[in-house]
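Worked example 2:
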Amino acid sequence: MIRYAARTEQRNREIEATRGEIWSQALTAVYETDPDVIAAVLPQPLEPPSEPLVRATITTVDMPGGYTFGAGYFAVRAAHEGVEGEYPLFMPMTTEQATIGGRETFGEPKKIGEVWVKRDGDDVQGVMARMGYTVVEINGRVVETLPTPPERTKTDFYFKFLPAPDGLGLGGSGFDNDPALVYCHKQEKMRLLQRVDGDLVLRDSPLDPVADIPVRRIVDLNWSERSTFQSGVIHSYVKSEWLAPFVHQRYDDMSVLGKGASK
């Protein structure tokens, strides 16, 4: 059997993986930042939200068969046509499978990174790091078990696009085609929710500058065990020139590392 040969069965493993009941342990911080900062990072047609909130979640995901990976999530609140949701800026993953599937299927801004969350008794710690820089760190202690909330559905906004091979692309925008605005609906179920007394620290990185989104006030800090059922749909296509100035949010500009930076 030649395993690279054409297959008669076509399956999207990324879609299948997001539709099963897969449990994870998550350390989450929600904080308030400056409204003008959120406005600055939102491409059109996204609009500033009713509240200038940011969510940082550090997760260990347990897949069937004993496969485990770390998943990071750093997103600002945003709105579109009356729908409020979140617009992720940074989603480091510890495995290639988790990274590529999400980027190519949903348009998630995923990158390979170091992500881990640990619990020792009531002490909890989580880290997102990449390219030698620790960028998000949460440390704390579980102080209270909270009532398990009802299932909820949240919306993430993604932009799905590919850079043009000649660097010019559609109308000189640098894209193959106009980007797709993807609505990703995430149905979340929790079996444990605990309040954490602790701190969120954002550290600087030239490639993943989450520290530019300042922490003004911690709104919520918690530890949870949860599962997420995810489905996505292309809402519409947006003008390439709207997204072109924001491509650096997803693709690394290695020149910021100086002369010694590799291509």
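Residues 96-106 form the longest helix (11 residues). The radius of gyration is 19 Å.
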